[in-house]
């Protein structure tokens, strides 16, 4: 706990940047969920006692899943696959976009309290932002029309958005930020990619993110989506009411 407080105090600009991203995404989720409720002619509280309890449970499961990471043969070892978005996608289909963004935030918050940050919040911001780029579009599509076809479309849209955003975010922000953080030339990081993946051109950040980051996000989005589509319907009544349908 003391270590986390020290990290916060010594990295105030990064923390404020993180908080600004959180506020913007919460506001977007709130407005989009309101629009979806209006379109469907329903009025539901975005948060109630049961939702808060379920958000806490799904966030805790997601945080645990963050620690089970798998290396991939086409990317450097610092890119690993995890399935922490699975419980969050299930939860956000049940409870809406605001709950989805909140689960992403609580997941990161729990991880920080338990493990702290080794990247002065850069990696944590990346995990939150990229996770929301998947969860938020998918949940918004599903919130406007809740049926099986819409769920499939939502998963496809979420996967594509995460792939595009995650790829661009790595190229524009994350890789340069890590190079600066670890006092390492960016070319050294890119070389790690070209050493393991022949599709990465030496010194090319574009080929690096296209060959290493985009496939990772596609695999993650597709696998999380497939599992969600298979298990959400039978789980939905239990999640929402505590009883089988």
Task: Describe what you observe in this structure.
Strand 1 and strand 2 form a beta hairpin. A two-stranded antiparallel sheet has the order 1-2. The protein contains nine helices and two strands. The chain has helices at residues 2-10, 12-40, 49-66, 85-95, 97-115, 122-144, 148-181, 186-196, 205-241, and strands at residues 70-71, 80-81. Helix 4 (85-95) runs antiparallel to helix 5 and helix 4 packs across helix 9 (205-241). The longest helix is centred in the last third of the chain and has 37 residues, at 205-241.
User: How widely separated are the two ends?
Assistant: 42 Å
Number of helices: 9
**Strands of the largest sheet, in order across it?**
1-2
H-E order: HHHEEHHHHHH
Which word captures the global form? globular
What is this structure's SSE topology?
Blueprint: H1 2-10, H2 12-40, H3 49-66, E1 70-71, E2 80-81, H4 85-95, H5 97-115, H6 122-144, H7 148-181, H8 186-196, H9 205-241
Helix pairs in contact: 2-5, 2-6, 3-4, 3-5, 4-5, 4-6, 4-9, 5-6, 6-7, 7-9
Characteristics:
245 residues, mainly alpha, two-stranded antiparallel ribbon, globular
Brief description of this entry?
With 245 residues, the chain is mainly α.
